[in-house]
Amino acid sequence: QVQLVESGGGVVQPGRSLRLSCAASGFTFSSYGMHWVRQAPGKGLEWVALIWYDGSDKYYGDSVKGRFSVSRDNSNNTLYLQMDSLRVEDTALYYCARGRGHNYGYRDSWGPGTLVTVSS
Amino acid sequence: DIQMTQSPSTLSAFVGDRVTITCRASQTISTWLAWYQQKPGKAPKVLIYDASSLETGVPSRFSGSGSGTQFTLTISRLQPDDFATYYCQHYDSYSYTFGQGTKVEIK
Questions:
Q1: Residue A108: its chain B contacts at CB < 8 A?
Q2: CB nearest to A106's CB, from B1, B91, B99
Q3: A10 Cβ neighbours under 8 A, 6+ residues apart
Q4: Which pLDDT tens digit goes with each residue over B39-72?
Q5: pLDDT tens digits for A58-69?
Q6: A106 and B93 in contact by Cβ < 8 A?
């Protein structure tokens, strides 16, 4: 069955960097667009980034554009999110999710998430 | 960017009730809309995609309708397992905005 497992979260100071990983299994990873979605404590869902199945196209939410970078390694079935210039408001649970349908638009499988806390 | 507005924010209902949640888009999105259910401490789960298509394995008491800018999620007979927060999300463009969520509580 489809499995997604995020890692790399932790506590980091404002202005520093962090890289998240998402290990995928149970499906042909190289055939799917993949997303990062985040959820601040007690808040709603916010889309962060999308990368196409082959890495050829990438899209970002306005709040992370220019600071975050999504990438993937299809040979190792792994998705990444490089987060630079972190801000307190980036504190959230970060999920990776598989994209399906039009514009890889809806997410049919999600990981359990990894928590990022940005605090001095 | 397209804004998604859900109503109500909170809904109290009895087991067995028919429940309807509304989602409005700030501009037309055809039928590029999904609905998710999220329980505390868990990742979201997709229920409906393309506005009205039921995801595999989702009970048939869930249904979606609408097109353009107005959409609804209906639970025909609320079950104890359905008490959760529900989100709509568009995918008309590469901006993927979510609604703010509707919490369905036990009355």
A1: 46, 49, 55
A2: B91
A3: A18, A115, A116, A117
A4: 999 999 999 999 999 999 999 999 999 999 999 9
A5: 999 999 999 999
A6: no
